[in-house]
Amino acid sequence: YAGKKTGQIFGDQLRKMLVREYKAVPINIAENTSVYDAIVTMFMEDVGSLFVVREGGQLVGVVSRKDLLKVAIGNQDTREVPVSLAMTRMPNIVTVTGDDTVYDAAKKLIEYQIDSCPVVRPLDETGRNLEVIGRFTKTTIAKVFVELGENREV
Ligand code: ADP
User: Fold this and answer.
1) Which atom of ligand 1 is closest in space to residue 113's alpha carbon?
2) Which of 27, 50, 64, 132 gets mutated to test ligand 1 (max ligand atoms within 8 A of its CB)?
3) Which CATH class is domain 6-149?
4) Distance 50 CA to ligand 1 centre (A)
5) What's the pLDDT tens digit per position in 68-113?
6) What is the ipTM score, two decimals?
7) What's a single GO MF annotation on this record (predicted)?
8) Which ligand 1 atom sits nearest the alpha carbon of residue 95?
């Protein structure tokens, strides 16, 4: 630590931590899942966003609480509306990879004003089709923050 300011030490630590080591388990649903069932899944799994994937694992969408609320407060039957009509879809999804640092991932959440990012890897050589392997969220950041807070003298 010789000659380093506290802020530098903190920054160095954050840039050493990889998304791979801190990612959470993703909760995935199919495109034809109803908004109603997506809401139930959110409660059951205790998450704020769900990833919409095709058979074979390809990421096609992200659906958040507000996406579902929007449908629920409209005059639509949530059992009849598929999540594919409410989700944010590819290629507009902000993603991170396991090799990204926790710092870069956290910066993305702030920059795009979102609560979570799917952690992905390419499904083929085109690089356009992505497979979901995890979830990086504001809760992940809170956990990292607490872990770093545990490092202290005495
Ligand atoms: P909430 O709706 O619970 O506030 P977010 O702030 O994460 O959750 O979502 C806000 C909007 O951004 C929603 O329309 C959602 O579909 C979209 N969104 C969420 N995560 C992503 C992401 N990783 N990439 C692109 N859009 C996203």
Assistant:
1) 6
2) 64
3) alpha beta
4) 10
5) 999 999 988 999 999 999 999 999 999 999 999 999 999 999 999 9
6) 0.97
7) DNA-binding transcription factor activity
8) 23
